[in-house]
Amino acid sequence: MQTCSAALNSTATLFSYDIVKRWRPQTGDHQLVTVGKIATVVATVLAIVLSPIFGHYGTIIEGLNKLISFVAPPITAVFLFGVFWKRASGKAAYITLVSGALAGFVMFFVDWKGWYSGNFMMTAFYLLLVCSALMIAASYFYPEPLKDESKGLVWKSWREPLGGESGGRGLGNYRVLAGCVIALFIVLYYLFR
Predict the structure, then answer these.
(1) pLDDT at 58
(2) CA distances from 91 to 34, 46, 88, 95 (A)
């Protein structure tokens, strides 16, 4: 119940503040609470309607992992190319998200029907490759100049974050923390292999 409560609360907050408040800044607190209540009811009904889909799998974790592996690749491709590649365009991102979502839905349906019994993690990797190729091709077909307000969000070079004091000192430096995490993974792998 606690997990469901947290998920519904997050859904209501996300929808109220990140969607409604952004598009209608004049919306008052009372109206946002009402919108949050409606979003909670809709999310609950949607969860009930979709529950037979997850009943098809052996465990709910298996169903969630497969669903995420079909939804995440287009989002990941758009995010990675949007941050690391200056030539990525908004139209290419839109095309990649829509096409990748359709491809993910088709793969989820094919998997759910039992017509495909491959590893869902490899399927997600292949979808990521397809979405990446689509993002690159669409960016070349629909180029857009990098806007001034976006220049601070895109790295000029992959080496940029490795230089300077951009992360702070000691444990406040992300490079030190990354080294600690890698060392911890090596130790854990050695202990639990």
Answers:
(1) 82
(2) 34, 30, 9, 6
